[in-house]
């Protein structure tokens, strides 16, 4: 459920939105359903499109994933009052993902556990926050 704070145009609002957005992405990894995540993701975010493509590839082939739990232990907005876009530095931890084909076989190499820093760039408009861009830090 979306926290009310995630609808505020503030530093705390961006941080709450960022955690919510990654929770929706995690749901997509678990289910293949990215409808709610798509609604909060801008059309020009190339890294976002890459994430979506990877998830779509698995689920559209009647395959599935096990694992891959995403968590965001650290989210820090880099708030600039009045700026048209706002950024957040995010630590994203993802558990190992095991892939299964339509016959229930796991012949594809698992994706290893990861711990990455990413930068999320968001914009706030009449519909609330939307992710404009996403990229790895470092």
Explain the overall architecture.
The chain is built from three helices and six strands; from the N terminus they run αααββββββ. The chain has 138 residues and is an alpha+beta fold. The chain has one domain (4-136): Roll (Nuclear Transport Factor 2, Chain: A). Strand 2 and strand 3 (86-94) form a beta hairpin. The longest helix is centred in the N-terminal third of the chain and has 21 residues, at 11-31. 22% of the residues are buried. The model has no long low-confidence stretch (mean pLDDT 96).
The CATH class assignment is: Alpha Beta
| Number of extended strands | 6
Under CATH, the topology can be stated as Nuclear Transport Factor 2, Chain: A
Indicate the proportion of strand residues: 25-35%
Helix share bin: 25-40%
Distance between the termini: 32 Å
Q: Mean pLDDT, as a whole number?
A: 96
Main sheet record: 4 strands, antiparallel
- What's the architecture in CATH terms? Roll
Coarse shape: elongated
SSE run: HHHEEEEEE
How many domains? The number is 1
Give the strand line-up of the largest sheet.
Answer: 2-3-5-6
Task: Return the structural class.
Answer: alpha+beta
Radius of gyration: 16 Å
Number of helix segments? 3
Low-confidence stretches: none
């Amino acid at each position: 459920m979306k926290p009310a704070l995630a609808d505020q145009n503030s530093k705390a609002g961006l941080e709450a939105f960022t955690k919510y957005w990654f929770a929706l992405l995690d749901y997509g990894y678990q289910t293949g359903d990215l409808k709610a995540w798509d609604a909060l993701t801008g059309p020009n975010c190339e890294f976002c499109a890459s994430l979506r493509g990877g998830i779509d590839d698995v689920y559209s082939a009647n395959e599935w994933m096990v694992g891959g739990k995403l968590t965001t232990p650290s989210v820090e907005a880099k708030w600039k009052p009045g700026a048209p876009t706002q950024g957040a530095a995010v630590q994203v931890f993802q558990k190992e993902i095991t892939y299964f084909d339509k016959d229930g076989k796991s012949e594809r190499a698992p994706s290893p556990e990861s711990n990455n820093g990413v930068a999320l760039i968001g914009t706030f408009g009449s519909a609330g926050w939307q992710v404009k861009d996403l990229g790895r830090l470092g």
